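Whiteboard transcription, Tuesday session. T.W. wrote the C-alpha cells on the left side:
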C-alpha cells in the first residue's frame, strides 16, 4: 500500500514537471517564435561591411604631453579640474 502511494506521488510530480514545460507553448504570442522580433535589422547589421566611419580608424590623436601628465596627476590625487565660471541657475519653467 505504501509503495503504491509513493509511485502515485512520483507519477504526479513527473506529470506536473512535463506539463510545466509545455507552458510556453500554451501561452499566446504575437510572433512565430518567442525570441524572434528584429530579424531584418539584425540581418542588415550582419551584412554591413564596415559600420564605423573612416575617421575612427585614426588612432594617432595629436595632443600635448603636458596636458596628459596633468590629467594623470589629477586622476591619481583625486583632484578634479574646477570649472572656470559658475553656471547660472536655470530659469523657472512656467506653463
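and on the right, the sequence the group agreed on:
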Amino acid at each position: 500500500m505504501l509503495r503504491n502511494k509513493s509511485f502515485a506521488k512520483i507519477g504526479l510530480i513527473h506529470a506536473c514537471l512535463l506539463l510545466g514545460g509545455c507552458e510556453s507553448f500554451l501561452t499566446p504570442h504575437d510572433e512565430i517564435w518567442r525570441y524572434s522580433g528584429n530579424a531584418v535589422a539584425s540581418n542588415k547589421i550582419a551584412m554591413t561591411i564596415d559600420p564605423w566611419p573612416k575617421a575612427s580608424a585614426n588612432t594617432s590623436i595629436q595632443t600635448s604631453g603636458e596636458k596628459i601628465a596633468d590629467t594623470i596627476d589629477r586622476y591619481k590625487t583625486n583632484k578634479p579640474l574646477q570649472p572656470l565660471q559658475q553656471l547660472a541657475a536655470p530659469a523657472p519653467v512656467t506653463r
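Someone added at the bottom: Residues 38 and 91 are 42 Å apart (CA to CA).
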